[in-house]
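Two proteins, back to back. First:
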Amino acid sequence: MADWTDLLPTAVRAPIAIYKNKSNLNRWWKKLLVYIGTGDTNVVVTGGAGAGKTVLTTCHHGEVKDHEWKEPDASTMVERKAITVGEWTKVFSVVPGQDIHAREVALNEAFHKHSNLEGVVHVVDYGYTTIRASVVREKLVKSGIDTIQAIRDYNLGLELEEFKRVCDLIANACANGRGPKWIIIAVNKADLFLPELDQAKEYYHPDGSGPFVETLNRLMTRVGSNHLKCRVIPVCPKPKPYEWAGKMLKPALVTYAEPADYMKNFVSIMAEVSSGK
């Protein structure tokens, strides 16, 4: 029902096939729809603020250049991109993580209005959530959340509540015959917890245990595994240290090629599920 890969170079799947004329036509058509602001969402990207949704989809879209890339600010509007997956191009809508009006509009459109919703990419980060607002950071530190483990525990609680909300949206959309057909749990920022990758798998994978797994398996029971395919994939689009309250955790990468290997694996699996495999 789900995938988890150690993501060593030897484990990366075969490259996606070269696109035929039909898929090229589809790609440019979807890009046009995004440009003019029309067309239904095929894939909705959800997750809490600071989990890395924009970075993940930006890297997937191919917009990142190492020499000019900068960490994006908090998203306040829906980001729509035409991203090529396998032989087809899908319209991705990245939903803001903040509780703002644009977020509610995007979720409502994706799950209740659009008729071509195929999949959900839900981005989590094992508690290494970026908290950008200095006022919020100071408040949390003053309240006693002054270690990396403490902020991770805090973030995991918020992450779980966000996932529960998304699961309800998915279940209701499926009950109304709107889809989606698959969900990918993208476990982001894997560079920060590579030594604990097995523990992360236990936390997120359907065969694991804990509150997140219970919520995921409850969704699969409500919808039915035959109607909703699930994959769980570690990803690492842009490694960077995690800092909190004067403490720093550096990425635990073994080779510089690992981030690209993560993305190749992510794209390959998404191509598989989007083609019904």
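And the second protein:
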Amino acid sequence: MSAIQTYVRKTAPRGRVTERVGPFLATFSPDTPHPMLNYAIPDDGAKPAVAEIDALTGAYRRRDLLPRLEYFTDVAPDLEKLLVEAGYGLERRVPLMTCAPDQRVDRPAPAGIRLRAPETGADFRRMRSAQNIAFGEPAEPGEAEQPSTGVRYLLAEDVATGTVVGGGLALEIVDGTTEVAGIAVLEAYRGRGIAAALTAHLTRSVHEAGAHTAFLTPGDLGISNVYARVGYRPAGECVHLSLS
């Protein structure tokens, strides 16, 4: 678990401003106040003093951002209690799932669906739009949003109409670990195995590129079951806490 948390500490700062606050790495996205893109990560075994938690809160308040943390509970088992005592509330508790090469189960794309990497800027924006809609976000991606170096993107396309109906990504591989994220399919196309195919394809890609551990954090039980069908297994939990 510590290796996965270390991976997040190394990759989360890419494209963000960071500040070291006591036993926390605070990250800030300069172009958006979205809470999922502005959060702190604790050190392993973090047991911050009240003053250090207050300093972390202040770092986000000064930027007019929601004070927020995301981390794997096993690496800092005492932290949640301390944060709650300081006024932070639990947003959600989600499972951590991992997949090693010998656990992976390949799933082909269903009939009529093509999986491919975005080939143009328009492809990328159509994929991001489909993901946003599927996640209940505004359809149009941010003006400054561009593909990131080292990230593998994959879109799902309706062969008959050319409509991009979903997508996903795998972040860069660091020390043999990578995260699969953003798996999303438009509501009208769900239940056909597209999400499983996207996940399996991305997971195979990173394993073939040398990753020994792919991980993800599903948002609900339904998508957890999809990931289980392609070889992912529960390995811990991730918590999101914030201070309103």
